[in-house]
Amino acid sequence: MTQHVRIENNGGILTLTLARPDKKNALTDAMYGKLADAIESAEFDPSARVILIRGEGDMFTAGNDVGEFAAVAAGKSEGSRNVVRFIQSLARCTRPLVAAVQGRAVGVGTTMLLHCDLVVLADNAQLSTPFVSLALVPEAASSLLMPARIGHARAYEMFALGETVPAKSALEWGLANRVVPLDKLDAEALALAQRLARQPAGALIATKRLMRSGEALVAQMQAEGEQFAQRLRTAEAREAFTAFAERRPPDFTKVA
């Protein structure tokens, strides 16, 4: 499954491409592991001055592979640990992170953007965090970062109701730096990454450390992770994933 993440390092830019378009770039444990390995290794690689994250195909990512969630909810799997490594690697990353987002960015596809320093959206981008709809809770420190970024009311609506935020609103709310036509997305994100790569790396790292505390974010992630793991094993979660598999609306009113 590691072929579903493509890694290239050119001109100081480490590009991580989600390359599973036939499955809407849904993230598996193996994919999380390869992403985490790349981000962690970049900390010790002076040639990786900037990290650019992008998705292949018509969607950035559908989020976590629902099949893996369902297996945990059904008691058939202990679940992924690489996802924890991945989101913590984002929090601790000292390199500038740039994201290029087209189409849907679901769940972790949106929450990972809160850790990116520059976010470029295609004009067809749609961000959503439907955790509660799956009987889960927010992750990747988004329960802290999202309200801080866009306010409690908007963040709660995104989490509790799973409301989708179109590119224009995401820009207005401060979830992105710019919105461009779809055919200009990769060029715009690459141009920004190249500009960052030409900046003094030490000054960029120091600036990022002053702006955010990676360890504080990891602490929030750990608190979220405990709740997330508990929620995955509830009757509500089993109903959510069963309904998803059966292509029907879940009925949480009958869950004790």
Write up what this structure looks like.
It is found in: Peroxisome. It holds the Pfam family ECH_1. Keywords: Isomerase, Peroxisome. The protein has helices at residues 29-42, 66-73, 82-92, 108-111, 142-150, 152-160, 167-173, 185-198, 201-211, 214-232, 235-245; strands at residues 5-10, 13-18, 50-55, 97-101, 104-106, 118-122, 126-128, 165-166, 178-180. The protein is α/β, with parallel strands linked by helices and 256 residues long. Strands 1-2-3-4-6-9 form a six-stranded mixed beta sheet, sandwiched between helices. Strands 5-7-8 form a three-stranded mixed beta sheet. It is globular and about 60 Å long. The model has no long low-confidence stretch (mean pLDDT 94).
Q: Helix coverage percent of residues?
A: 40-55%
Q: Which structural class matches the secondary elements? A: alpha/beta
Shape: globular
What is the number of strand segments? 9
CATH class of the domain at 5-182: Alpha Beta
Low-confidence segments, given as residue ranges, are none
